Amino acid sequence: MQAKTVVVKLGTSVITGGSQFLNRAHMVELVRQCAELKQRGYHLVLVSSGAIAAGREQLGHPSLPKSMATKQLLAAVGQSHLIQVWESLFSIYNLKIGQMLLTRADLEDRERFLNARDTINTLVEHNIIPIVNENDAVATTEIKVGDNDNLSALVGILCGADTLVLLTDQPGLFTADPRNNPDAKLIREVSTIDETLIKIAGGSGTTLGTGGMATKLQAADIARRSGIEVIIAAGSADNVILESVSSSPCGTRFLPLPESLENRKRWILAGPAASGDIVIDDGAVNALQRKGSSLLAKGVTEVNGEFARGEVARIVNQSGTLIAKGLVKYSSEDMIQIQGMHSKEIGEVLGHDYGSEIIHRDDLVMMQD
Ligand code: GLU
C-alpha cells in the first residue's frame, strides 16, 4: 500500500507557546511525534510559521519601525535561525530536512506549480522532511499567499496529501467564541462548510477572527475539495500529531468531499488568486450547477474587477454567493462588452472570437457542495 502523506502546519503560537521566543521544549516534543509518524511509515511535510518571531529572538527583540522592509529583515534573519533550530531538533532522530520557501507567484503559473510539486515530492521520496514557509523576505503583498493556513492547503495539494493538520492555540472550531460564551461547544466533525460555519469562524468579522479560524476554514475548504482530510487542533494537546492519523482525532475534523477534483482543477482552485468577479443570472447558475454546462456570455449580468484572458475569476450569483471559480477565455474588458449577448455576436462586437464559452467547463471549479 502507498504510504500516506500528512502535512502538519505549525502556527507561530504553537512554536512560541505564546511567548516571545521559540519554545524549543515544545518543538522537540512535536519533532518526537513527527519521528514516530515517520517510523510508522507515513510521509511527512511541515509548514512552519515563526520566521518573524525567530528573527526578533535572534536580534534580541530590537525596536524597529513597523514597515514592510523591517518585517522582511526579521523574516530573513529569522527564517535561517528557525530552520537551524528545526535541523538540530530533527537530527536527534537522525532525520533530514529540506527548506522550501514559496510565494503565490510560485504557484500561480501552472509550470512553476508543477516544478514546486516535483521538488516537494522528490524530497519526500528521498525520506527528507520538507519544511515549508512563505518566502517572507522577498514576498510583497501582491505575490503573497498571506497566511500559512492557506499556504498549507496549497502544499497539501502539491504533495497529494491525505491529511492536513492545522495546529494552533485553540482546541478546534467551536459553535461560538469560547472566550466569551461558556456554552460554546467544540465541533468534532464537519461535512459541509456553510454560511453558518463561516460566520462562526469569523468570516464576517464577528467572532474568533483574531484566532485565525477564518483562514483555517478557507484552507480546510480548499483541501477537502482536493480529497484531503483536515484536522484543526491544539498544538499543545497530548500526542496531537499522532492522534491526527487515528480514527478519532482530537479537535475538529473536516471530511474530504467524496468526489475530489482532478489535478488541473485543484490547481485552478488553489494556485492563482482570483482577480475579479463575474456576476451571473439564475438561469446560468442552474446551467452550471445542474447541467454541467460551460459559462456563456448570455448569463453574465455584471463584471467587477480586472482580469486578463487566462486568469482566474470568481463566479457569483445575484446575491454575491460564490458559485464557482474558473479560467476566463476573455478579459474583463471584453466581457463587459459581450455580457448578456448571444455567443454568435461575440466576434462581431469584439472583432475577435476565442470561442462561444467564456469559461469552458474543464476550466471551471464548482464551489458548492
Ligand atoms: N510566514 C509567517 C512567519 O513565518 C507566518 C504566517 C502565518 O502564520 O500565517 O512568521
TrEMBL record:
Its EC number is 2.7.2.11. It catalyses: L-glutamate + ATP = L-glutamyl 5-phosphate + ADP. GO terms for molecular function: ATP binding; glutamate 5-kinase activity; RNA binding. ATP binds at residues 9, 168-169, 210-216. SUPFAM superfamilies: Carbamate kinase-like, PUA domain-like. Pathway: Amino-acid biosynthesis; L-proline biosynthesis; L-glutamate 5-semialdehyde from L-glutamate: step 1/2. Its main location: cytoplasm. It is an enzyme of class 2 (transferase). Residues 276-359 form the PUA domain. One of its GO terms (biological process) is L-proline biosynthetic process. GO terms for cellular component: cytosol. Substrate binds at residues 49, 136, 148. It is found in: Cytoplasm. Keywords: Amino-acid biosynthesis, ATP-binding, Cytoplasm, Kinase, Nucleotide-binding, Proline biosynthesis, Transferase. Catalyzes the transfer of a phosphate group to glutamate to form L-glutamate 5-phosphate. Belongs to the glutamate 5-kinase family. This is Glutamate 5-kinase. It comes from Vibrio ezurae NBRC 102218. The lineage of its organism: Bacteria, Pseudomonadati, Pseudomonadota, Gammaproteobacteria, Vibrionales.
